[in-house]
Amino acid sequence: MASSSETSSQPERPPRPNLAFRQLRGRRSPAEFAALVRRAARDIGEAVSCDARYVGRVEAGEIRCPNYAYERVFLHMFPGRTLTDLGFAPRSSVRGRGARTAAEATPLALGTAETQRACEPYDTQDPFDPQDPYDTHEPYENDPLNHEESDVLRRAFMTGGGVTMAAATLGPLGLATDAAATARPQRRAGTPEAAALEEAVRRIRLLDDRHGADGLYRRAAAPLRAAYALLDAGATRLTTAERLHSGAGELAISVGWLAHDSGRFDDARSHYAEALATARMTGDPGLEAHAFCNTAFLARDAGRPREAVRAAQAAQRVARPLNSPRLMSLLALREAGGWAGLADRAGCEQALARAQALFERGHSDADPEWMSFYGEAELEGLEAQCWSTLGDWRRASRHARRAAHLQDPHFTRNIALYTAELADDLARGGRPDEAAQAAMRVLDLLDQVQSSRIQTMLAGTARVLLPHRRASGVSEFIDRHASLPRAGRA
Hints:
This is Transcriptional regulator. The chain has helices at 19-25, 30-43, 52-60, 68-77, 91-95, 113-116, 145-148, 152-155, 165-170, 179-183, 191-211, 217-233, 238-261, 265-282, 285-301, 305-319, 325-341, 345-359, 376-389, 393-406, 412-428, 432-445, 452-465, 474-482. The protein is an all-alpha fold.
């Protein structure tokens, strides 16, 4: 593992905070502002994976000049202003390097300290979009685009050998997917590798929000191996080593979630345990709370509700000093799910009340970046799952309906999940016609979402509705569900 005592012989120049950009955010939380950026991007046909961490990096001055996609989005959001007005440096002042030949390129392409954080990676396309150029090939070393913007982050983990389709899909992250890459000794990691690792976590979460876990899990395992290979290689500075450990732990949780959502519970448990070990080894309470949070969710889904309660309570003990009410709210919901699995209605109701009260305290600057998904829709969706487990179908369907209505259209996977929950609750609550309508909406989303969890829920709904074939729309749903390809069935 990377030694925490290693320091750089030439410390990097500290970035200058971007106060102008911070002023534009106003009273919104970083997560709320990131949601506005994504919405503005969709308005003009761009696709950027902006989240709270990206906003924080801009405000801290780590991103001196955004890539062209973000530039177009920011200028759309603030018409009449220039990049300089937004607190960024002119592009010409941060480019600072000429074209490289293929012979000069290395598996870990490192620039100067100036170019390492000059610009963000310019990939903003969705790898599942058929028009995404990175879906079919690795960018060439002498592609002129490589010299138009910094490609340090995109190539930080890339190897010189051939790439598979998985590499093409995750290639814009700059992560090695060639198994030989993790076997070769690497130079000690620095800022570009840490930034690439953090970007990988963001990108995987974004793709999961859009498409679900099934198509991503196997492709995400190789970047995780590359991340831990970087830890073994060591880091140039103490702060970099800390970022690498945190990034590797968060990546392990992200990959674990992909396994969890695609029904690979044993794999998920292993990844969460790996993240927990990393957190405890480095004394990272935020990472430890996150690992316990996901462990509690997994235990609930795997039929171990008492373990779910214990893990959620452990997460709350660790997270309490972090001063994030929203995090504590989510952890209370994880505990509520465990109590529901134990058929302890009183314990569940107490945890739900605590979750609601903590949620109403609002956002905090201490909210972890990974919690950007946790809004009112997720609160409603998780409460719906609790009432469903307790067999209160009326309450469950009310909260599931509200969750689907409140969900940002960007989160396609969650819309499908909440609607599938609604369909199942309605079916079990004796409302087959409404259940069939909701289930049909989920079927319409399956060409965009690949999630074994959702497919399993639909299969259960179909079984419940079988005796009600004569109800309006039920026969159509059952026939359409039965016609799904076997590989897509639960």
